[in-house]
Amino acid sequence: MEPEWLKQATGIGMWFIGFLTAGNALLLTFLIYRRAHKFGLKMGLKTEAMRESVKAALITSIGPCLGIFVGMTVLVIALGGAVAFIRESAGVGSIMFELIASRAGAEAAGVKLTREGMNSTGLATILWAMATGSVAWVLIGGVFTRWLPKMKDVMGQGNPQQMAVISVAIMLAAFGRLLISDGIKPLLLKGMVPPFAGAVVALVVAIGWLIWSDKIKKPIMKEYFLLVAIVAGMAVAQILRIAIPR
Amino acid sequence: MNEEKYHGMSPLPLEEKEAIIRNEYGPKVHLVGLLTSLGQAVIIFLPALFILVAYGVWPGWATIGKAFASTAAIAGPYWFIEPVSYFLILGIGGTYISFLAGNISNMRLPVSAVSQEVAGVREGSPEGEIIGAIGIVASQWALTIATLAAAIVVTLVIGFLPKSVTGAFDFLLPCLWGAIFGQFALRSPQYAILALIIGIPLVMWSGLPTWTLIPIMVFGLAILSIFLFKRGIWVPKKA
Question: Does B131 sit within 8 Å of A49, measured CB to CB?
């Protein structure tokens, strides 16, 4: 039987919000397209060139769309199709952010981010975390665009190299903490090997895949590193769970 | 050769083209971009509000605050870094769509670049602004179809998967964190080791509330990285 929280997450109301979210983004694209086309013609651009750019964009979108399709599987499994559609059609778009927000919400509500462990309060907390954690992107992109160049100077103190180092350190701190909590802590406290082994395999595969992509000079292969690493890690972890009875 | 590459450039004088962007196209796009972004800032809260109004589920300010603190500690810097970093590449129209609908580095940037290449216009030019925006518009149409298809197809298929397959998703999070950690460890192994050395005792034995751990580690390592950078320690050869 479907749990109560999943009925709430996949009900018709949530799907309606999904279409409203996607619809607002589509409205913006049509409005911008009309203006770009009109002033493009006025500027002397040819209709054919604009049509060609639409075609090229659609073809270029196929690869990323496939990646998004596969990545969304995770979100659909965790929170249901409607929430995944809301967040991916016109949300932040990053599966990584959505999972971080989901995990933060689940942790704050004291539930697990699994279908069995979730409840209505956990779902609500996750939805609040997703909204509050991503609204700033929309507001900064939508309202403060004209002041953006000045902000850049303040944050990096005019030094792009310093900015790059800070960014990497921040990401390693954040993901290091999550890796320790979900991969290392279960091993050290409860002797659970599969999550640790899965995390290590994913880490090694990710590094190997990225180095290999550079070596064969095919940077486009990097688009798939996360997918390959996660699948390899999950497969190893699941095999170990079946093979090592607790 | 350049003339051939940039075959789509308009013969109008540059000043005239820039005036069209500045005085006609720009203000109109700013207006629709602002209005739809404000609308999206409200829509983004509807799922949570729907659960509250329709089912009466309210986690409480304290719980939401904890979840927000953990999320913001990671995403917060990127609220500023991303718009700042991408604005000059995406242009006016592209920025509004990209920050309303996401998927910037994996989709909008390559689409914008390819569209301009195919149309034969120069990046950063008034023509590039128009063509880049059109390309990003088309990418959103493709994205909407793909996400709707994924939501429906995966929902239908998941019921038919055996437990041994769906059970593997219990390990999704540790594998995801491991892979991303590996990605950044490749760029700075020293900070990766440091994050683990500081993080393991902090997470395991500090006794601090779990929601405080990400902000502590993020801001701790950020301050340390600035300190070390200014002393020339662990500075990468190329940024």
Answer: yes
* B179 in Cβ contact with A182 (< 8 Å): no
Main-chain phi, psi angles of B38, to 5 degrees: -65, -40
Residue B231 contacts residue A205 (beta carbons within 8 Å): no
B154 CB neighbours in chain A (<8 A) are 72-73, 76-77, 81, 84
pLDDT tens, position by position, for chain A (246 residues)? 678 999 999 999 999 999 999 999 999 999 999 999 999 999 999 998 899 889 888 887 887 787 777 778 878 888 889 999 998 888 766 777 888 899 999 999 999 888 788 999 999 999 999 999 999 888 887 777 666 545 545 555 656 677 778 878 887 888 898 899 999 999 999 999 999 999 999 999 999 998 998 899 876 677 677 778 888 999 999 999 999 866
Write the Ramachandran bin of A157: left for phi over 0, alpha for psi from -120 to 50, otherwise beta. left
A47 to chain B, any CB pair closer than 8 A? The answer is no
Q: Rounded to whole angstroms, how far apart are CA atoms B194 and B157?
A: 42
Mutate to test the interface with A, among B21, B44, B155 (most CBs of A within 10 A): B44
Kindly determine whether residue A203 and residue B182, on different chains, have CB atoms separated by under 8 Å: yes
pTM recorded for the entire structure? 0.76
Query: What residues in A contact B118, CB-CB < 8 Å?
Result: 52-53, 55-56
Closest CA to B134 of A39, A38, A53, A142: A53
Using the structure block, give the residue that is written with the tokens 């798939």. Answer: A224
Please state whether B124 falls in left (phi above 0), alpha (psi between -120 and 50) or beta. Answer: left
- Mind telling me how many Å the CA of A182 is from chain B's nearest CA? 5
Note which residues in 177-216 of chain B have CB less than 8 A from chain A: 177-188, 191-192, 194-196, 199-200, 202-204, 210-211, 213-214
- Asked if B141 contacts A27 with a C-beta cutoff of 8 angstroms, the reply is no
CB atoms A68 and B146 under 8 Å? yes
Measured CA to CA in angstroms, residue A70 lies from A75, B2, B234 at distances of 10, 40, 37
Q: How far apart are CA A138 and CA A28, in angstroms?
A: 13
User: Residue B157 is encoded by which pair of tokens?
Assistant: 């298929």
d(CA A69, CA A84): 10
Determine the distance from the C-alpha atom of residue A196 to the mean position of all C-alpha atoms in its chain, rounded to a whole number: 22
